[in-house]
Design brief:
Blueprint lengths: L7 E3 L5 E3 L3 E2 L7 H12 L4 E3 L7 H10 L8 E6 L6 H15 L4 E6 L7 H13 L3 E7 L3 H10 L6 E5 L7 H9 L3 E5 L11 H10 L3 H11 L3 E2 L6 H8 L8 H8 L17
Parallel strand pairs: 3-4, 4-5, 5-6, 6-7, 7-8, 8-9, 9-10
Antiparallel strand pairs: 1-2
Helix pairs in contact: 1-2, 2-3, 3-4, 7-8
Bound molecules: NADPH dihydro-nicotinamide-adenine-dinucleotide phosphate (NDP) and 1,5-anhydro-D-fructose.
1,5-anhydro-D-fructose binds next to loops.
Protein name: Aldo/keto reductase
Pfam family, one: Aldo_ket_red
GO molecular function: oxidoreductase activity, acting on the CH-OH group of donors, NAD or NADP as acceptor
Length: 276
């Protein structure tokens, strides 16, 4: 049973990554993101998920510096965006992200989407960054099984993480099984469906029976599947609410009720629209 906000999963290379973190997509650069990250760190969050695309890496870095949390406790993820891909372009994009964040080492660097004709060269750049110890772990995002296989075919280093859309409407069972077999940690994006799922009767009824909010029910379901989760909020009360999920456990039957909501329904883009 996962009992702490600071519970960590061991990645294939032994690096420990928190199961729980803060996503900052659409948190505005400036006060909004700085305040959100500070509130989260104060509430015990130790992992922050940003991206070059989110245009708030500077604010994330500022909040980290202004908090009193030792750097070694923190786990910072950022991603190379689609128009930055390719070998040399990715090395340059990484330096820009690193500078904006104000960090020497990034904990996890991800390929944001599998861009056609680019993602294998991009992966080679991530390998270089890893070998140069500029990143503690490397991974991908929005990779389906065939994208992962393509990377694994050309590389000695497997992606350590695959960050994908994951929630009860899209449970990604075959992809999760593939990742389990190859020691790739699955991480959920849009875990709260941006609230779409909150009014679902199954979620409502579980929330009532556990005395928890719909958001907490869905996030706990992520963790019990051993999927890393990074809900986004910029509101202090919700940042704390989303983290208050370590004092209860969904029973197997209730996990099954949430699993049964799967409709293979994507709220975001299909990775195969980037490359098949
Ligand atoms: N790799 C990728 O391609 C992608 C990665 N991501 C990552 O995943 C993170 C999470 O996904 P995201 O798309 O942000 O969506 P989420 O599913 O985390 O939902 C975030 C939304 O839900 C609201 N919210 C948060 N907590 C609560 C709550 N307890 N009750 C009610 N509403 C709530 C937030 O509003 P408010 O802020 O006002 O509280 C926000 O509008 C992103 O921030 C990003 O880091 C996301 C999409 C794609
Ligand atoms: O990280 C991201 C945030 O959400 C966007 C819209 O769904 C995605 O395209 C992007 O990958």
């Amino acid at each position: 049973m996962m009992e702490s906000i600071q519970a960590r999963t061991k990645l294939a290379n032994g690096v420990e990554m928190p199961f729980f973190g803060l996503g900052v997509y659409q948190a505005d650069e400036g006060k909004e993101v700085v305040d959100a990250v500070k509130v989260a760190l104060k509430a015990g969050y130790r992992s922050i998920d940003t991206a070059s695309f989110y245009k708030n890496e500077e604010g994330v870095g500022q909040a980290i510096r202004e908090s009193n949390v030792p750097r070694e406790e923190l786990f910072v993820t950022t991603k190379v965006w689609n128009d930055e891909q390719g070998y040399d372009e990715t090395l340059a994009a990484f330096e820009r992200s690193r500078k904006r964040l104000g960090l020497d080492v990034i904990d996890l660097y991800l390929i944001h989407w599998p861009m056609k004709g680019k993602y294998l060269d991009t992966w080679r750049a991530l390998e270089t960054l890893y070998k140069e110890e500029k990143v503690r772990a490397i991974g991908v995002s929005n990779f389906n099984v065939h994208h992962l296989e393509a990377v694994m075919e050309i590389s000695n280093i497997n992606p350590m993480v695959d960050q994908v859309e994951f929630h009860p409407f899209l449970t990604q069972a075959p992809l999760r099984e593939f990742c389990r077999q190859h020691e790739i940690q699955v991480e959920a994006w849009r875990p709260l469906t941006k609230g779409v799922i909150f009014t679902h009767p199954v979620v409502q009824s579980l929330a009532q029976s556990y005395g928890k909010t719909p958001a907490q029910i869905v996030l706990r379901w992520n963790l019990q599947h051993r999927v890393v989760t990074i809900p986004k909020s910029v509101r202090a009360e919700r940042i704390r609410e989303n983290a208050d999920i370590f004092d209860f456990q969904l029973c197997e039957e209730d996990m099954g009720k949430l699993d049964a909501l799967n409709e293979n329904r994507r709220l975001g883009q299909d990775p195969d629209s980037f490359s098949r």
